[in-house]
């Protein structure tokens, strides 16, 4: 595996890859299976946003690293029985994919906290193994989120099929950008298009991603312990 990139190197690549005149895509450090020490070290370099896939694993990290005032994103599938923990402890939910979760999250978000930032996850390539709503379900789900107290609709997230042909991935990113632009014209709060990971984040940035999710390219191989 290639040597992990530094925060500075990734930031430079994102700046170079993005559209001319646009702000670089935000880096979301995917810290699942990474240690508290690894996250703390990256935070010391200035990284603020961290993404976790599993609620229970994330809660322990959030508690340990609370004094650092980091921004925590849930990027993995959300089961209804975990809505309380997510509504209570996370800053962002990037994987909302069905209507039944909206009232639960809205009811459980503590009133003293800022609204939970929400991205609707889109299954842009219609993969049976992937979470996410179908593209034609995006607008109704966005409307439900936008109308819910305690939630703030911020945009869309997708994980295109990891096909070797980068032209196909580019096409998926472009479909996501078009869908994002449609949603953004209807909701002033929408500003985030999260797409692109360690092996295609520069391509995603070139197609208009405002956030990329990078784990192994920065942390190195995931821990298995």
In short:
This protein is an alpha/beta fold.
The CATH architecture designation is: Alpha-Beta Barrel
Average pLDDT taken over every residue: 94
Number of domains: 1
Output the strand order for the largest sheet.
7-6-5-4-3-2-1-8
Outline:
globular
- Please name the CATH topology: TIM Barrel
Could you tell me the number of beta strands? 8
pLDDT under 50 segments (min length 5)?
Answer: none
Helix and strand composition category: alpha/beta
Beta-strand content bin: 15-25%
The major β-sheet equals: 8 strands, parallel
Radius of gyration computed on alpha carbons: 17 Å
CATH class: Alpha Beta
Annotation field: number of helices: 9
Q: Whole-Å distance between the termini?
A: 19 Å
Helix content: 25-40%
What is the CATH superfamily?
Answer: Alanine racemase
H-E order = HEHEHEHEHEHEHEHEH
């Amino acid at each position: 595996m290639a040597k992990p990139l530094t925060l500075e190197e990734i930031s430079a690549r994102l700046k170079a890859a993005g559209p001319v005149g646009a702000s670089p895509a935000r880096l979301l450090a995917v810290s699942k299976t990474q240690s508290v020490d690894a996250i703390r070290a990256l935070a010391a370099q200035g990284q603020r946003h961290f993404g976790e896939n599993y609620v229970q694993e994330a809660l322990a990290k959030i508690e340990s690293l609370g004094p650092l005032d980091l921004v925590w994103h849930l990027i993995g599938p959300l089961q209804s029985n975990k809505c309380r923990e997510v509504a209570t402890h996370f800053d962002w939910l990037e994987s909302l994919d069905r209507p039944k979760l909206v009232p639960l999250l809205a009811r459980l978000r503590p009133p003293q906290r800022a609204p939970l930032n929400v991205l609707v996850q889109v299954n842009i390539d219609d993969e049976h193994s992937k979470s996410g709503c179908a593209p034609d379900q995006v607008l109704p789900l966005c409307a439900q989120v936008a109308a819910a107290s305690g939630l703030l609709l911020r945009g869309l997230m997708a994980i295109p099929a990891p096909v070797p042909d980068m032209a196909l991935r580019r096409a998926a990113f472009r479909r996501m950008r078009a869908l994002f632009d449609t949603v953004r014209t209807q909701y002033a709060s929408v500003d985030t298009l999260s797409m692109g990971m360690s092996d295609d984040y520069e391509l995603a940035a070139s197609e208009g991603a405002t956030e990329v999710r990078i784990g192994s390219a920065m942390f190195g191989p995931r821990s298995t312990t």
